[in-house]
């Protein structure tokens, strides 16, 4: 990933392994990982659809393991599960709608939009929390 030519993460399995491990660790501690995992996946130079599918597959695997683990330790009740389930259903609907738009977007502008959104959300969280 290049950010104005200053930061370079090598594309490859090592970056994915280290980035995935770091992302999973931070997600386990804080419950957030979006900007980190996005940075890792952006290094792969994927098309917008391939980027979203790769990110979604990794997130699904991580969240399934997390839900099973928390359930195993009795840290999740039915109320929490149903909240997540219904929010997840709404998110899936939004993804199906967004797919129609994303499949027609060029890679470079899309990567810039993703980076700008990550920065904006990070700043918003920093200011509001």
Give the termini distance in whole angstroms.
Answer: 28 Å
What's the number of structural domains?
1
Name the poorly predicted regions: none
Order of helices and strands: EEHHHHH
Number of strands: 2
Taken from the alpha-carbon principal axes, the silhouette is: globular
Helix content: over 70%
Over all CA atoms, what is the radius of gyration?
16 Å
User: How much strand?
Assistant: under 5%
What do the pLDDT scores average to? 84
Notes on the protein architecture:
It is a single chain. The chain is 77% helix and 3% strand. The protein has five helices and two strands. The chain has helices spanning 13-30, 34-42, 48-72, 78-102, 107-128, and strands spanning 2-3, 7-8. Strand 1 (2-3) and strand 2 form a beta hairpin. The longest helix is centred in the middle third of the chain and has 25 residues, at 48-72. The chain is globular and about 45 Å long. Its main location: membrane. Pfam families: TauE. Belongs to the 4-toluene sulfonate uptake permease (TSUP) (TC 2.A.102) family.
Quick take:
By secondary structure, this protein is mainly alpha-helical.
């Amino acid at each position: 990933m290049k950010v104005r030519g200053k930061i370079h993460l090598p594309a490859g399995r090592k970056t994915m392994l280290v980035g995935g491990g770091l992302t999973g660790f931070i997600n386990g501690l804080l419950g957030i990982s979006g900007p980190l995992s996005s940075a890792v996946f952006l290094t792969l130079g994927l098309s917008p659809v391939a980027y979203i599918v790769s990110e979604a597959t990794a997130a699904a695997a991580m969240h399934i393991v997390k839900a099973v683990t928390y359930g195993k330790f009795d840290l999740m009740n039915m109320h929490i599960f149903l909240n997540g389930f219904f929010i997840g259903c709404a998110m899936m609907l939004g993804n199906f709608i967004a797919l129609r738009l994303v499949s027609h977007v060029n890679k470079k502008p899309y990567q810039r939009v993703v980076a700008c959104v990550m920065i904006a959300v990070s700043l918003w969280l920093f200011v509001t929390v």
